[in-house]
Task: inverse folding
């Protein structure tokens, strides 16, 4: 029974998320599976991946073959790196402590990259919100100035009209 680690699609139209499953290669994409080992949501930025690391590593060790997309996800999470290092330990290239140290160094670097991306995205969002606020404040102040100018013009016109009517009344009184 050839076993695959692959994605099973869930969600609605144009808003898919996936379960990472271990399944017989002959079963349908969204059909029967042996075990669910995680989930993948590409709709968030960065994509959200929840993976049971130990189960994935166990299945890879037992010979399960990941599909291309599942392999990319497993590589991103470090499962493929850990498997590679464990194979090196089996062959005697280095000991288990060295393999664990290499994996921890890789994981620390990977986490730093992910956090830098998240910080960059939040910084860009904050800057965009700040620029929108400044543009809105400028529009609001321009609008307030225009209203004040119209009010001043209306007041000046009313004052001029009042003076005009007062002079007309004075002129009528002198004629009479």
Result:
């Amino acid at each position: 029974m050839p076993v695959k680690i692959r994605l099973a699609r869930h969600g609605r139209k144009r808003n898919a998320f996936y379960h990472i499953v271990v399944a017989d290669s002959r079963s349908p994409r969204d059909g029967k599976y042996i075990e669910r080992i995680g989930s993948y949501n590409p709709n968030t930025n960065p994509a959200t991946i929840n993976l049971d690391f130990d189960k994935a590593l166990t299945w890879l060790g037992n010979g399960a073959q990941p599909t291309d997309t599942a392999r990319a996800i497993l590589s991103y999470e470090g499962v493929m790196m850990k498997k590679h290092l464990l194979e090196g330990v089996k062959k005697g290239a280095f000991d288990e402590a060295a393999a664990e140290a290499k994996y921890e160094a890789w994981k620390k670097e990977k986490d730093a990259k992910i956090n830098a991306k998240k910080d960059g995205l939040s910084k860009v969002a904050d800057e965009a919100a700040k620029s929108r606020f400044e543009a809105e404040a400028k529009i609001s102040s321009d609008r307030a100035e225009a209203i004040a100018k119209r009010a001043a013009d209306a007041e000046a016109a009313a004052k001029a009209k009042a003076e005009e009517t007062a002079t007309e009344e004075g002129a009528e009184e002198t004629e009479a």
Notes: The chain has a mean pLDDT of 90. The chain has four helices and five strands. The first helix runs from residue 53 to 61. The radius of gyration is 35 Å.
